[in-house]
Every structure is written in C-alpha cells, then in structure tokens.
Amino acid sequence: MPALQLAPSILSADFGHLAREIQTVAEAGAHRIHIDVMDGHFVPNLTLGPLVVQACRAATALPLDVHLMITAPERLLEAFVQAGADVLIPHVEATPHIHRVLQRIRALGATPGVALNPGTPAIMVEPVLHLVEQVVVMTVNPGFGGQAFLPEALATVRAVRRIAQARGRANLSIAVDGGIHPQTAPQARAAGADIFVAGSAVFGHPQGAAAGLARLRAALQSASA
Predict the structure, then answer these.
(1) How many domains does the chain have?
(2) Is 3 exposed, middle or buried (0-12, 13-18, 19+ CB in 10 A)?
C-alpha cells in the first residue's frame, strides 16, 4: 500500500487569506492541496472554478488535486488543466462517458483520478481502474464541508483496495474525503486508504491549520505504529 499523504481541502480555508493558508499547510508538511469544485447541480452547493485553481497554483508547488463534483465534467477539463491542476478527479456517476473523460485528462497532460459517492458500489471503478492513479472514496455525501463521517464507506475503501490488488494495481492511491479527523483517519488507513483529505480538521483547528495537520499526522502515525 502506498505511503500516507495528507491533502488539506481548501473548502474550509479562509479565502480572504487563501495563499497564506496554503503556504501554512505546505510548510507544515502537506503532501498535496485538495480543491473541491461544485456546480450546484451534481451536488447542492456552488463553490470554486478555474480562477481559484490558478490562485492556488501561484501559491504553491504542491500537487493540486481538483475534485470535480460537477455534471458533465468533460466541458471544463481544459480550463482546469490550463489553470494549473495536476490531478483531475471526476465522479463516475457524473457522466456516461467516464472512460473517454479519463483518457482526455491524460491527453491534456494531467493525472486522472475518479471518485465514488457513498452509495455507489466499488465495482463501478473496475472498468476504468487501468486509466487512473487515484480513487477518491467519499466518506460523506458530497456537497458540504463539516459533515459526519459515514462508517459504511469503509467497506467501499476495502473493496476498492481488493479490486486494485486483484488487477495488479497494488500501488493505486485511495483517498478518503469527508469527515476525516484524528478519530476517523486511522479507521480509513486500516481499510486501505493512503490519501487523507481533511478540511475543517485542518483549517478549522482552534490552534491553526499547522496544528490541525500535525494532529492528524500524529493520529495516523500512532495507528500505524
């Protein structure tokens, strides 16, 4: 299983000081920055677009994981790649042409990933597993930050890991996104996750984002010891 990585989600950051927030978590040891794009259609919220990705790109050299919680993601792939996205992660549920979308992401020079909602079975990613470097398992219903972790999503993490191993993809990264904090992250790690997307647990920590990231890392390291 790949080494663990921490991916702070800027959905919970202070957008009045976004560059500073990103630089804080980068200096504190974040491995990548997670950017949640929502269109108010695929999910009941409207958030970020290519201009915010461009601002994040200017603020850090860390990989930018752009999570496309949007209907028909094929419409905007070029815009996000041009803005500086390193990884584009559409949802398997969001388009009938997921295979073509992932091929297009690769052709544009970005790394393709794919995401699953909590109610979607892991088997849905098997036909495209050879096209992606990362599977994001939603551990809340997507659309809003600060939700409670859904423990039933751990079964999906385990199932994706089993499928990956059976397909010769033991090094496939599996991210968990939603309700990730020091109590839930070790459970997801035990299930087979290696990338931990955390928003409020990092940027909402009362002692600051660096402290939140450090607490999450310590919980994962303690569970792995």
Answers:
(1) 1
(2) exposed
| Amino acid (1-letter code) at residue 194 | D
48-80 residue pLDDT tens = 899 999 999 999 999 999 999 999 999 999 999
Exposure pattern of 146-181 as b/e (b: 16+ CB <10 Å)? ebebbeebbebbbbbbebbeeeebeebbbbbbbbbb
The Cα–Cα gap between 125 and 9 comes to: 23
Residue 216 makes CB contacts below 8 A (sequence gap 6+) with 6, 180, 181, 182, 185, 196, 198, 201, 202
DSSP 108: T
CB 9 within 8 A of CB 196: no
Residue 74 CB contacts under 8 Å (≥ 6 apart), including other chains: 95, 97, 100, 101, 104
Domain containing 146 equals: 5-224
Which pTM does this prediction carry? 0.95
Poorest-confidence range of 35-44, 71-80, 154-163, 179-188?
35-44
Structure tokens at 94: 């969001």
Q: Is 38 helix (H, G, I), strand (E, B) or coil?
A: strand
Cβ proximity of 75 and 50 under 8 Å: no
| pLDDT score for 61 | 97
Catalytic machinery residues = 36, 177
The enclosing domain of 169 has a CATH number of: 3.20.20.70
Q: Which amino acid is at 142?
A: P
Enter the DSSP assignment of 39: B
Distance (Å, rounded) from C-alpha 107 to C-alpha 34? Answer: 22
Amino acid symbol at 71: T
Q: What's the CA gap between 159 and 24, in Å, rounded?
A: 35
